[in-house]
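Backbone-to-sequence.
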């Protein structure tokens, strides 16, 4: 292993250790350690949970064209999309875990399960999606390592994962949209808006962290382009309703305008095919600001200020570091398997041929 991967792994381990120390302090002091309060019951944790679920759901934008439309350009990157989905689901579950304050409260969702509880359905959908993606990734890797065709049961499981991916972010949108007392969230367009942002941010992240073959990169950029266009359109509908209705509203938070400016700039660059890497970065940052921070803060009307505390930020960074470490290890495993295949050109390559992606 070169020194660079070792340094990145060590840096992630340090971030995780600091976050764990802050979480142990939160267990002792309670959620009063965070910037949340009686008036602001959701904060950075729930915002990051929302964004992480979107990243996980975005894997469908690689699975769907490859398995339903036989887009060969996606053959080598579908597995990496599954790895990102697994890591993102793990992050989303950890964000819910730390947001509940005490670990025992997580069990209450299961011990006192209710069909009327959106959180219960959200937990079920996320757990099921994690199991599906783990099974798909494990079977695919096993097939590549043994150089045998994938098992017959894999394709139905993959097809099942497509609507399941859409469901996890739809249910997450229902967590917000079902709260009639929060006008900023009480909108039927929230689920489509969540999905559009997910289908832009996830593929953008994939292109930012992997060196993808040119043909696959072009096709993924097209996905990001139109998903971002849909997201900007949905946001403009929300802004029109806000301003044209004449109903008194609290001022929109500054982060919303920053996110909108970044998103519009990214959209222009994507359609003009200029500075695509920079456009992908702006896309990711715009959607992270919108869903990861602004979505939660704007729902509490802005009457009570909310500023995340340093321990709260450290815990959130540690969770993202856990996801990054998981993805790194999974990427390296796939890279090792495919490197072994390249060293044996005489063998038949039945599973996911033509990788089309360099090592991350």
């Amino acid at each position: 292993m070169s020194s660079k991967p070792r340094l990145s792994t060590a840096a992630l381990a340090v971030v995780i250790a600091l976050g764990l120390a802050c979480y142990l302090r939160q267990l002792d002091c309670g959620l009063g350690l965070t910037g949340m309060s009686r008036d602001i019951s959701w904060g950075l944790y729930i915002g990051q949970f929302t964004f992480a679920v979107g990243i996980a759901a975005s894997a469908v934008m690689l699975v769907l064209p490859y398995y339903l439309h036989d887009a060969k350009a996606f053959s080598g990157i579908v597995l990496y999309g599954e790895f990102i989905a697994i890591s993102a689901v793990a992050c989303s579950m950890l964000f819910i875990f730390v947001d509940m304050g005490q670990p025992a409260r997580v069990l209450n969702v299961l011990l006192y399960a209710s069909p009327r509880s959106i959180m219960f359905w959200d937990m079920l959908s996320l757990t099921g999606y994690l199991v599906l993606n783990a099974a798909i990734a494990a079977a695919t890797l096993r097939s590549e390592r043994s150089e045998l065709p994938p098992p017959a049961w894999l394709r139905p499981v993959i097809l099942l994962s497509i609507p399941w991916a859409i469901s996890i972010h739809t249910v997450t949108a229902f967590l917000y949209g079902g709260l009639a007392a929060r006008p900023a969230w009480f909108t039927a367009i929230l689920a489509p808006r969540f999905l559009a942002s997910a289908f832009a941010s996830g593929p953008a992240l994939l292109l930012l962290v992997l060196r993808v073959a040119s043909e696959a990169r072009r096709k993924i950029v097209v996905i990001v382009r139109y998903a971002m266009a849909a997201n900007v359109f949905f946001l403009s509908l929300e802004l029109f309703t806000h301003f044209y209705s004449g109903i008194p509203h609290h001022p929109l938070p500054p982060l919303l305008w920053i996110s909108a400016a970044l998103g519009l700039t990214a959209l222009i660059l994507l359609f003009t095919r200029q500075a695509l890497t920079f456009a992908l970065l702006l896309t990711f940052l715009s959607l992270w600001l919108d869903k990861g921070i602004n979505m939660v803060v704007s729902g509490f009307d802005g009457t009570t200020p909310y500023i995340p505390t340093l321990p709260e930020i450290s815990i959130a960074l540690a969770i993202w570091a856990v996801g990054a470490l998981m993805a790194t290890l999974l990427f390296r495993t796939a890279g090792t398997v495919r490197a072994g295949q390249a060293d044996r050109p005489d063998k038949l390559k039945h599973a996911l041929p033509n990788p089309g992606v360099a090592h991350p």
